[in-house]
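Support case: magnesium ion complex. Customer-provided input:
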Amino acid sequence: MSTIDWLIDDAPSSRLQARAGRLYRLSRMLLRNPLAVVGIVIVTALVLVAIFAPLIATASPTEQDLANRLLAPGADHWMGTDELGRDIWSRVVFGARITLMIVAIVAVISAPVGLVVGAVAGYYGGWVDRILMGLTDVFLSLPRLVLALAFVAALGPGIENAVIAIAITTWPSYARIARAETLTFRNAEFISAMRLQGASAVRVIGTGILPLCTSSMIIRVTLDMAGIILTAAGLGFIGLGAQPPLPEWGAMISRGRAFILDQWWVATMPGLAIVVVSLGFCFLGDGLRDVLDPKHGDKA
Amino acid sequence: MKPILEVENLRVSFPAPRGRVEVVKGINFSLGAERLGIVGESGSGKSMTGRSILRLIQRPGRVTADRLQFEEVDILSASDRQMRAVRGARISMVMQDPKFSLNPVITIGDQIAEGLVAHRRLPRAQVKEKTLEMLRAVRIADPEKVVKLYPHQVSGGMGQRVMIAMMLIPEPTLLIADEPTSALDVSVQAQVLDIIDELIRRNNMGLILISHDLLLVSAYCDRILVMRNGEVVDECAARDLAASTHPYTRGLLAAMPHLNETRDELPMLDRRSQAT
Amino acid sequence: MNILEISDLNVSYGTSQVVHDVSFSVKEGEIFALCGESGSGKSTILRAIAGLATEWTGAISVLGRARERGLSARFASECQMVFQDPYASLHPRKTIDATLSEPLRIHRVAGNHGDRIEEVLDSVGLDRRFRFRFPHQLSGGQRQRVAIARALMLQPRLLLLDEPTSALDVSVQAEVLNLLKKLRREQGLTYVMVTHSMPVISFLCDRLAVMRHGRVVETADVEQLKADRMTDPYSQELVALSRGRPDQKSEKTQ
Ligand SMILES: Nc1ncnc2c1ncn2[C@@H]1O[C@H](COP(=O)(O)OP(=O)(O)OP(=O)(O)O)[C@@H](O)[C@H]1O
Ligand SMILES: Nc1ncnc2c1ncn2[C@@H]1O[C@H](COP(=O)(O)OP(=O)(O)OP(=O)(O)O)[C@@H](O)[C@H]1O
Ligand SMILES: [Mg+2]
Ligand SMILES: [Mg+2]
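Agent response - structure generated as follows:
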C-alpha cells in the first residue's frame, strides 16, 4: 500500500493514521487555493530567511561604513545603504528575525490567554462572564496602537516591552471570538454527554470546547499577524519599539523618512518587506479560513 | 395539470479520496399541485434531492440535471439573485434537524420576526402579533413564553414546530418538508400535518414530504417515491404502498414494529451491498 | 428490586415549572417507556435523573440511594444517558475512538482501553474499522450506536434513552431496537426510554407512563396498550391515532 493510500484510507486503523489523514486532506485543500499558496511561500520564506540570516545577508547588519553612505541599490548593495553606510539588504534580512520573534511571542502569549478567558467566560456565563467580558471590553474600547503606546510609555521603550504591550492589546479580541464560539456549543448535547460521564469543568473546557474554537482562532491569529507586524513597526517608527542599532523594519523606515525624497530606497525597502510579509499572512489566513471554517468549507 | 416542478436526470456528487461519488444517481419526477412523498433509508439521498432543488448544495458538492425547472425558472442556470427570490418566497424548505438550523444564540421570537420582515415591511407591533399567531398555528401552547426562549430551551418537538412556522410565513408555491415531524407525538403530528395539508389544498401548492415513516407518508401524500442508494427503486400511489411488491419496499414495511407486536426481533435490511 | 424510584418530582427551569408531581418506579431489568405530548417534560425528567437539570424537588433514588442534585463521578458509572439527536450528541472533532475512551480516562479505568473499546464496538454491532473515523463519516444509525456504546463504556446498570430512534429510518430503527433488546438480555440492563412511537413501546417495553402538560396521566402495562385497555382519554387518543393512521388515508384520498 502506498503512502497516499495509507493517508486517504477511509477506515484508518490507528490514531496516528486518522490524524495524518486529516492533515493530508486539509493541506491538499489548502494547496488548491492559489492565494493560500502565495501566502505559504511568503511565510515559509520569512521563516527560512530568519533562520539562515547570517548565510543570506551579504554584510553585517550593524557595521557602519561611512564612506559608502546612502548608496543607491546596485550590484554591491542590492537594496542600497543607509545614512550610516549599512547594507539595507542585510538589515532587512536580519530584521526578519525580529519580526518573526515578535509575531511568534505575541501569538504564543495572547492566543492561549484569549482562548481560555473567552471559553471560561462563555462556559460559565453569569457573573464570571460579566467580569471577564467587562475587562475585555475595556481593552477593546481603545485603539490598539494607542493602548500599546500607553503600555510602552509606562514600561519604557524597548523591543521586549513592545512585544508585551502588543500581546496585552491583542488577547481581548481573541477572547471575544472564543466566547462567541463557546456560546454556540455550551448547550450542545455532546458537552452534556461529557459532563454526564463525570468530566470536570477543566476537562470539558480543555478537551471539549477549546478544540472547537481553535480553528477560528488559528484563522484569526494568522489574519492578525499583519496587524501585529504593523503595530510593532509603528512602535519602532515612533522610537518606542526596537532601539538602534537593531534592524527592526519600522525603526528603519523611521530613519529613512529624512531622506525619502532623495534616497527613496532607505525607507522603501523595509516598507516593502512589511507589505509583503503582511500580505503573506493575510493570504494564508484567508486560505486557512476556507479550509478550516466549517461554515465555509468541509467539516472534516 | 401544469407541472410546478420538473426534474430530469438529477445527479448530485461529492468528491471523495478516489474520485467523485454520486449520492443521487439520476432521478426523474415531475410535480403538479400534489403531494409527493419520498421515503428510503438513511443516506439514500432524500435530503440531497430536496436541497438540490433549492440549489443549497455547497461547493465541493456538484449538481447536474438535464432539466430542473420550477415554474418559469430554470434552477440550474438562474442567477444567485433569482435564486434568492425563489428561495423562501416561492419554495420553502423545512430542514431536517431543527436545532442545527436554528441559530443557538438568538431567541425563537427574534428568528421568526427576522423571517417575517425579510418578506415585507411590517410595523413592529404587527410583527409581534404575527409571530405569536404563527406559533399558535403550529399548536404551541404558550407562545408568549416560547418567543423569549433560546433554541436549547425548547423541547425537540417545539423546535420542529418553530421551523415549520417559519417556513409557512411566505405562503410558498412549493413546500419541501424534510422529516418535519419526527420528534412530535402522534397527536400534535396529526394536527401539524393537517395544517400543512389544508394550506396546500387551499393555495394549490405542491408538497414534497421527505420522511422515513412509511405510514405517515402514505397517509399524507398522493404519490410516493422509494429511494435507495441515490436511485428511485419503487414508485407508487400512496394508497398502494402497503400492497407494493417491490422487495425493498416490503423490507422497509416489515422493519416497522406494530402496535400489537409479537415478534421477538425485527427483520433488518441487508446493508452489505451498500457502500459505507 | 426497584432500580429507580421517583416520587412527587417537580422540576422547573428558572421561574417556570415544567414537571408536576410525577411518581413512578422501575424494576431492575425492566424497560420503562415515557411517552406523551411534545413539550410535556419527558426529556426534563431524564435530565433531572441524570443530574443535568438541577432545580427539582421531590425524591429520586437510583439503586436504592437517594440522588443528590447535580452530577457526580460515581453516579456516572451507574447511570448513563443517550441523547435524542445522534447528529448533536457526538463531538464533531473527535474520532469514535477518542469519544469512547473519554469515560475510561475520566474514571482512570485500569487495563487496556483499546481492548475495551473494541469489545463495546462489537457489542453494539459496529465494525472495528469505524473506530478511527470522525462522526461526519457515519450515518445517523451508526452515530446512534456510537452514542449507545459510549453510554455502555462504564458498564452502567441503568440507561436513560431520549428518543433513541426518532431520527432514524425504519431499517436502522429496527437495528437499534434489536440491539437494545439484545443488550438487555446479555447484560441485564434497565432502560427508561422516551419515545413517541406506540409501536416501539409495544415491541420493546414492559411498562409505560403517558404524560401531558407536565403530569403523568396514566401508568400502564404494555399488555394494556396492546389490548387497547388504556383508561385515560388522552392515552386512548394517542393509541387510536397510532392505530388509525393507515386507514386515515382512505378517507383523505377520496
Ligand atoms: N458533504 C458531504 N460530503 C460527502 N458526502 C456527503 C456529504 N453530505 C452528504 N453526503 C452523503 O450523501 C448521501 C445522501 O445523504 P442524504 O442526507 O441525502 O441522506 P438522507 O436520505 O436524507 O438520509 P437521512 O434519512 O439519514 O437524513 C449520504 O450517504 C451521505 O453520506
Ligand atoms: N433550558 C431550559 N430553559 C427553560 N425552559 C426549558 C428548558 N428546557 C426545556 N424547557 C421547557 O420545558 C418544557 C419541557 O421540555 P422537554 O424538553 O422536557 O419536553 P419533552 O417532553 O421532551 O418534549 P419533546 O417530545 O418535544 O422533546 C418545554 O416547555 C420547554 O420549553
Ligand atoms: Mg436526510
Ligand atoms: Mg424531548
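Strands of chain C lie at 2-13, 16-27, 31-36, 56-62, 65-66, 79-82, 158-162, 190-194, 207-212, 215-221.

Case will auto-close in a few days if no follow-up is received.
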